[in-house]
Write a structure and sequence with these properties.
It contains eleven helices and eight strands. The model has no long low-confidence stretch (mean pLDDT about 95). The chain is α/β, with parallel strands linked by helices. Helix 1 packs parallel to helix 11, helix 3 crosses helix 4 and helix 6 packs across helix 7. The protein has an eight-stranded mixed β-sheet, with helices on both faces. Helix 10 links the parallel strand 7 and strand 8. It has one domain: 3-Layer(aba) Sandwich (Rossmann fold). The radius of gyration is 18 Å and the shape is globular.
Length: about 300
């Protein structure tokens, strides 16, 4: 792992495959770290002839944490948005997209195939809209457009995600149990839940750098992002939208809306997949990303 300076922050990243190959940039989701793009999945992509880069977003893992800014109060945030006011937030998804573009600059990579999951899908969408010259193809996984008319997350999932969690310093076992309960809830019904693998990820993220306040700042960035559909209509890169039929956080209509908003986008609805990427789907998802990347060629 190395840390590179970009856009006023440092981003932790690592890579797989040959640097001479075309690059796939993997963008992580809300409150998670680059290791959610597991090594076996990254190697699936590298085996198809790609230089695969994964990184920690700001406020996650080994990247810069914006500790000087407290996350906005969720109630105040909702009240401001409900009144039509844009609240003051530490940063936006557009800043995070600029981080990713800056990472490519720091690595001397002109263009990349950009793949994002959940919040990372939103960041990838913004890159394709605002920095089209840097995006060879776009894959948006388990994400959404910011369209306020779309179905909301399941209430219990939202409560688990945004509610209080045990402090990992004071109650490590409770923290891990809370994370496992959430991971199990958002997993789809089509594949066995791998509790051991989920536990390893939760513990590794905790060891690398857990930051509940960083999670809150990232939520604020999502909250003020607005509806991206008008800008998504300008995307020209080959686009793939992957979404789970069992996703309780972003229901399937969110994936359908994303694909409908981007000219020529392919929608790949994965039966039995939730708001996660089970190992059983690594090969199929990697093959679909490769197919979309080859369309650019």
């Amino acid at each position: 792992m190395k840390r590179l300076e970009t856009n006023g922050v440092e981003l932790a990243c690592d890579a797989f495959g040959a640097p001479s190959d075309e690059t796939i940039l993997l963008i992580a989701g809300l409150g998670t770290q680059m290791i959610r793009w597991t090594e076996p999945f990254c190697l699936e992509l590298a085996a198809r002839g790609y230089h695969v880069i994964r990184f920690d977003n700001r406020d996650a893992g080994g990247s810069t944490h914006i500790s000087g800014r407290a996350p906005p109060d969720f109630g105040d945030l909702a009240a401001a948005l409900g009144a039509g006011r844009l609240p003051d937030v530490p940063y936006t998804l557009y800043d995070m997209a600029a981080d990713a573009v800056g990472l490519l600059d720091a690595l001397a990579i002109g263009r990349a195939h950009v793949v994002g999951r959940s919040m990372g899908g939103m960041i990838a969408q913004i890159m394709a809209c605002e920095h089209p010259e840097r995006v060879m193809s776009l894959t948006s996984i388990m994400s959404s457009t910011g369209n306020s008319a779309l179905p909301p997350p399941a209430p219990d999932v939202m409560a688990m995600m945004a509610g209080p969690a045990p402090d990992p310093v004071l109650d490590e076992a409770g923290y891990v149990a809370h994370g496992l309960a959430f991971a199990r809830r958002i997993a789809g019904g089509g594949y066995p839940f791998d509790e051991a693998a989920a536990r390893r990820l939760i513990v590794e993220e905790m060891r690398r750098a857990g930051d509940r306040q960083g999670f809150g700042r990232q939520i604020a960035a999502i909250a003020v992002a607005g509806d991206r559909r008008p800008r998504l209509a300008t995307v020209t890169a080959p686009t793939l939208v992957i979404h789970g039929s069992d996703d309780p956080l972003f229901p399937p209509a969110c994936g359908e809306d994303t694909a409908a908003s981007i000219p020529g986008a392919e929608l790949m609805l994965m039966g039995g997949m939730g708001h996660d990427l089970p190992a059983e789907l690594y090969a199929a998802v990697a093959e679909a990303i490769d197919r979309t990347a080859r369309a650019r060629r």
